[in-house]
């Protein structure tokens, strides 16, 4: 770039290839001139190596009947990468139930996380961040932990008299909705026009399992229990006995309290012999007449 009083060449972001001899040639009608300039650029050598790449894709392995969970992968990287595990966005640290290891052979790294006796709180997204100066790699693994159902309380019985309905209810703890079967004595209760099984989620990890019996009959009396199952196993509740069946007679009777139709009256009595020295005390009898109320059917 030239001006009457100034001549300038600007090189942005110079690199080693920009070094060398530069010449400025200036010419007009009276003659010409040349200016030579040597430019030496000392650039840092470009880093050598490779960013992390997967040799074995991330996976989740369950061992010892689900009591040990292993998450692992293999990567190739140069130079050696830094490795950080996350769960739910928080950095993981080793503990009595959690261990992390890295085995190195040449430029290949076997990365492993071991989780002992996992519980539902260990479910969620796990991320392994693998990073070196040449690049970055993330391994994302989603862990779903399911344990056998847990029933902590005895079932309870509720009567709805107006509908002649009985509800037997039990709370079950499970990661997902379990398969539920109600038993009366030793026989499974099958759903029909009077018997209904309803499973309602109370909150995360807890379900209310209800057996509704409509148009109750005497044959519905008996001992009931719940069996809840999932892929890990099953749980059986305590038994509860249905003794009373709601009937129409149990409804409150309708009617009115007694009222007086006629006020109280005093009835005098007479002495049998007024001249006799023998005295007879007169007794006043109060007669109360009431109107009986009719009971409504």
TrEMBL record:
Domain Ig-like: 52-144, 149-241
GO annotation, cellular component aspect: plasma membrane
Pfam families in UniProt: I-set
Bias (Polar residues) ranges: 266-276
Designated name of the protein: Ig-like domain-containing protein
GO BP annotations listed: homophilic cell adhesion via plasma membrane adhesion molecules
Region of interest (Disordered), ranges: 247-276
Keyword vocabulary terms for this entry: Disulfide bond, Immunoglobulin domain, Signal
Keyword Transit peptide listed: no
Keyword Lyase listed: no
């Amino acid at each position: 770039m030239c001006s009457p009083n100034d001549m300038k060449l600007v090189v942005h972001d110079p690199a080693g290839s920009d070094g060398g001899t530069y010449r400025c040639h200036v010419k007009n009608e009276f003659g010409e001139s040349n200016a030579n300039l040597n430019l030496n650029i000392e650039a840092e050598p470009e880093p050598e190596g490779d960013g992390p790449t997967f040799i074995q894709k991330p996976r989740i392995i369950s061992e010892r009947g689900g009591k040990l969970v292993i998450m692992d992968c293999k990567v190739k990287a140069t130079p050696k990468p830094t490795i950080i595990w996350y769960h739910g966005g928080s950095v993981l640290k080793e503990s009595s139930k959690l261990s992390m290891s890295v085995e190195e052979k040449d430029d290949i790294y076997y990365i492993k996380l071991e989780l002992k006796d996992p519980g539902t709180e260990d479910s969620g997204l796990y991320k392994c961040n693998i990073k070196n100066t040449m690049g970055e790699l993330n391994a994302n693994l989603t862990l779903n932990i399911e344990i056998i159902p847990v029933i902590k309380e005895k079932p309870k019985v509720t009567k709805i008299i107006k509908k002649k309905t009985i509800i037997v209810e039990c709370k079950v703890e499970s990661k997902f909705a379990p398969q539920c079967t109600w038993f009366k004595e030793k026989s499974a209760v099958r759903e029909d026009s009077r018997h209904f099984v309803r499973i309602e989620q109370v909150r995360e990890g807890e379900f209310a399992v209800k057996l509704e019996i409509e148009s109750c009959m005497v044959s519905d009396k008996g001992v009931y229990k719940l069996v809840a199952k999932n892929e890990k196993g099953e749980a059986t509740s305590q038994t509860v006995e249905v003794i009373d069946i709601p009937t129409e007679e149990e409804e409150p009777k309708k009617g009115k309290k007694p009222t007086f139709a006629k006020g109280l009256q005093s009835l005098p009595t007479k002495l049998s012999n007024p001249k006799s020295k023998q005295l007879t005390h007169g007794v006043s009898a109060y007669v109360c007449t009431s109107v009986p109320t009719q009971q409504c059917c």
